[in-house]
Design brief:
Elements lengths: L1 H4 L4 E6 L1 H4 L8 H16 L3 E6 L2 H9 L8 H24 L5 E6 L1 H5 L1 H16 L3 E6 L6 H5 L2 H11 L4 E6 L20 E3 L4 H5 L11 H12 L4 E6 L5 H6 L6 E4 L4 H11 L5 E5 L1 H10 L8 E6 L6 E5 L5 E6 L4 H7 L7 H5 L13 E3 L1
Parallel strand pairs: 1-2, 1-5, 2-4, 3-4, 5-7, 6-8, 9-11
Antiparallel strand pairs: 7-8, 9-10, 11-12, 12-13
Helix pairs in contact: 3-5, 4-5, 9-11
Length: about 375
C-alpha cells in the first residue's frame, strides 16, 4: 500500500488545529509556510492537491484572548469569523511565494448531503483544480450551528475526498499516527503501521480529542471509513515530521495507513449502483448505449430520446435502452425541466436553448455506473 500511495494522483490534505496554532500559542506561520512549501512541491510534481484546514476557531480564540474553547454557539461563530481572516491571509501569502493561487471554499456537511449542492461544490472544486488553483476548504463555522457542536474537519475532509474522488486522504495531526492505545496515557503504546479500515478493534484503541480541536483519533478512524466509501486510502501522520508529505509520496513508512477494502472506482460504482433510488428515467438511442457500454464515456444530451419522472440536478436517474432494459444509472447534471429542453440536441447548443451555460454531459462518466 505504501508503494501504491506513491503512485496516487489526487490528495486531500487536512491539517489540524493543534498544528496550525502551536497548540494554542498563536498562528503557526512558520509551520504553515513549511506545509505550503511541501504542497507546492507536490503540485509541481503533478499531484492534484486539495487542502482542508482547521484552525479558524482556534486562531480566533487567540486573537480574542480566550484560553478555553467556549461552549456558546455565538461565541464560536465569532471566533471562527475572526480567525478565518488571519488563516486565509497566511495561506494566500504563503502559496504566492511559490507562484500558486488559492481559493477559499467554506462548506457545511449539508452542502455535501444535498445532491444539487454536492454537484455544484464538486464542479467548482474540479474547475479550481483544472486551473491550477489550490482549494483551501474549511467548515463554514461562522454560520453553522449543529456543525460547530458536533462536526469536525476530519469528517469534512473525508467527505471532500468522496466529493473529488481523491486517491488519498492525508490527515496531519500532533500525533505520529494511530497507536494501539493512547500514547498520552500509555508510554508503551505501539504505533500501527497499516490497518484495515473495517477492523472493529480500532474503535477501542482510539482516544479523545484535544482542547482546541473537535476531533480525536476516533474521528480519524471514522473518517478513514468514510473516505474508503470512494476507495481512498487514508494516512494519519505527524505534521511536525520534517517533509512529511514529500516522504509519504515517496513511499516512506510514516504514520498509519488505513487501507480500504476496494479500489477507488469499484467502491464509487458500488455506491452509485446500490445506495440511491432513481428519481427518473432516460431513454437512450442505440448509439448512446453503445458509447456507454463499449467506450466508457459520458452521456450527452444528443443520445437521449425521451425522459420520465421528476428530478433535480444531482439526483439519481436510470438509463434504459429503447426496449426498456436498464443499462446504467447516474447522477444527472440537469433538472427535469432543463433536461426536457436539451435532450436530442448537441452539447454546443445547450447555452442557446437554456439561455445560460451548463455541463456538456447530461451525466458525467464519473457519476455513472453500468449495470
Amino acid at each position: 500500500m505504501r508503494k501504491k500511495l506513491a503512485k496516487t494522483k489526487r490528495w486531500v490534505v487536512k491539517i489540524g488545529s493543534a498544528l496550525l496554532t502551536n497548540d494554542g500559542q498563536g498562528l503557526n506561520k512558520s509551520g504553515i509556510a513549511n506545509w505550503v512549501g511541501q504542497l507546492a512541491k507536490l503540485r509541481k510534481q503533478g499531484l492534484d492537491v486539495i487542502l482542508v484546514s482547521s484552525g479558524s476557531v482556534a486562531v480566533g480564540m487567540r486573537s480574542l484572548g480566550w484560553e478555553q474553547r467556549p461552549s456558546s454557539v455565538h461565541q464560536l461563530q465569532a471566533a471562527a469569523a475572526v480567525g478565518q481572516m488571519g488563516l486565509v491571509q497566511c495561506y494566500e501569502s504563503s502559496f504566492q511565494c511559490h507562484g500558486l493561487h488559492t481559493a477559499q471554499v467554506l462548506l457545511t456537511h449539508d452542502d455535501l448531503s444535498d445532491r444539487k449542492r454536492y454537484l455544484n461544490a464538486r464542479s467548482a472544486i474540479r474547475e479550481l483544480i483544472s486551473l491550477g488553483v489550490i482549494p483551501v476548504i474549511n467548515e463554514n463555522d461562522t454560520v453553522a450551528t449543529d456543525e460547530i457542536r458536533f462536526g469536525d474537519n476530519d469528517t469534512l475532509a473525508a467527505l471532500v475526498a468522496n466529493l473529488v474522488e481523491a486517491d488519498a486522504l492525508v490527515i496531519l495531526t500532533d500525533q505520529q499516527g494511530m497507536f494501539d492505545s493512547d500514547p498520552r496515557q500509555n508510554p508503551s503504546a505501539k504505533l500501527l503501521d497499516q490497518v484495515c479500515v473495517s477492523d472493529e478493534s480500532l474503535d477501542a484503541m482510539a482516544g479523545g480529542g484535544g482542547k482546541l480541536g473537535r476531533g480525536g483519533m476516533l474521528t480519524k478512524v471514522r473518517s478513514a471509513r468514510l473516505a474508503a466509501r470512494s476507495g481512498a486510502v487514508t494516512v494519519v501522520a505527524g505534521g511536525a515530521e520534517p517533509d512529511i508529505l514529500l516522504r509519504l509520496l515517496q513511499g516512506e513508512s510514516l504514520g498509519t495507513v488505513f487501507v480500504p477494502e476496494q479500489g477507488t472506482m469499484a467502491a464509487r460504482k458500488q455506491w452509485l449502483a446500490g445506495h440511491l433510488q432513481t428519481k427518473g428515467r432516460l431513454v437512450l438511442d442505440a448509439g448512446a448505449v453503445k458509447v456507454l457500454q463499449q467506450k466508457g464515456k459520458s452521456l450527452l444530451p444528443v443520445g437521449v430520446k425521451a425522459l420520465t419522472g421528476r428530478f433535480v440536478r444531482g439526483e439519481m436517474v436510470a438509463c434504459v435502452d429503447e426496449s426498456g432494459v436498464e443499462v446504467a444509472r447516474g447522477l444527472i447534471n440537469y433538472s427535469v425541466d432543463e433536461a426536457q429542453k436539451i435532450i436530442g440536441h448537441a452539447s454546443g447548443k445547450i447555452e442557446d436553448i437554456l439561455g445560460y451555460g451548463g455541463e456538456s454531459e447530461i451525466i458525467h462518466r464519473d457519476n455513472l455506473v453500468l449495470l
